[in-house]
Design goal:
transmembrane helix; 8-stranded antiparallel β-barrel; DUF305_CopM-like; alpha+beta; Ferritin-like; DUF305 domain-containing protein; transmembrane; 3 domains
């Protein structure tokens, strides 16, 4: 076997290993190129080069070339390992592109594992909800940061203070408030005939329902809250605002709309997901 074929074999194996690392993601829209996974694939390719050449030394006669391959593979292994461990080249968007497939794996395993214990099932369902929420938030932030909107400060809750259990139960941490999925029946309790929805993920219930009369419904901290339309795609109530923006030419199979949720207290969060106005009869 020639050294060229050996190199092509290692290169092909490295590319295949990179692709295989995505096979345990939950959904196609969670596939993002990952800088860290690229370094890991290169690291594994370098390891494979050392192991395979060691087993096939008798097929390659050039001691100088063999030594060069061993030394080169060790160097590539070391550099790749340093890049993975240090994350020195990973920016905010690169970090999120790597985390989305990672979160997707958690969704798949948590949803499909054969769990019998109710406590473990509850834990798995909480993991699924949290990962889907964070995936939608990261999809929003990837584009927002890439557009140059780098935020230096965000809302923070006041410092903890001594008190009783009753005080703790009465206390609301604003930074942890967020929109929760709600069913059509729940939305129907505060708006008439909800028709349009915004979903963080196609597999979960929407976090916003809107109606033809301009009303909308969201669920916040276990409370179903009605909103009134304050502009095209904007809905508000005392203390909070929700805005939905269609992505237009930016829309793709990953998302077609962006939603921002703001509280007057200072909290602001955004998501990329799916806005749909298809009625039960198939019309829009």
């Amino acid at each position: 076997m020639s050294y060229v074929k050996f190199g092509l074999m290692i290169l092909t194996s490295t590319v295949v290993m990179f692709i295989l690392m995505y096979l345990n993601t939950y959904a196609w829209e969670h596939l993002f190129w990952s800088e860290t996974r690229t370094y890991m694939a290169i690291l594994m390719g370098a390891t494979m080069a050392i192991i395979m050449l060691a087993y096939m030394l008798g097929m390659y006669d050039s001691k100088a070339m063999n030594a060069a391959i061993f030394v080169g593979a060790i160097v590539v292994f070391g550099v790749s390992l340093w890049l993975v461990r240090s994350q020195t080249t990973v920016s905010g968007p690169s970090y999120m592109r790597a985390m989305i497939p990672h979160h997707s794996i958690a969704v798949m395993t948590s949803e499909r594992a054969q769990i019998e214990d109710a406590r473990v099932r509850h834990l798995a369902d909480e993991i699924i909800a949290a990962q889907r929420k964070e995936i939608a938030e990261m999809r929003y932030l990837i584009d927002d940061v890439a557009d140059g909107n780098v935020v230096r400060e965000i809302y923070e809750d006041p410092p903890a203070a001594p008190g009783s259990v009753e005080d703790a139960l009465d206390n609301t941490l604003i930074s942890q408030l967020d929109l929760s999925p709600l069913t059509e029946a729940e939305a129907g309790e505060v708006v008439a005939g909800p028709t349009c929805t915004f979903n963080r993920s196609p597999e979960a219930d929407p976090i916003l329902w809107t109606a033809a009369d301009g009303g909308a419904a969201m669920k916040l901290n276990g409370v179903i809250v009605g909103l009134e339309e304050s502009g095209e795609g904007d809905f508000a109530t005392d203390g909070a605002r929700v805005a939905v923006r269609l992505l237009g030419d930016e829309a793709n199979w990953r998302s077609n709309a962006a939603l921002t949720f703001e509280l007057e207290e200072g909290l602001s969060v955004g998501y990329r997901g799916f806005f749909d106005c298809t009625g039960s009869d198939g019309t829009e």
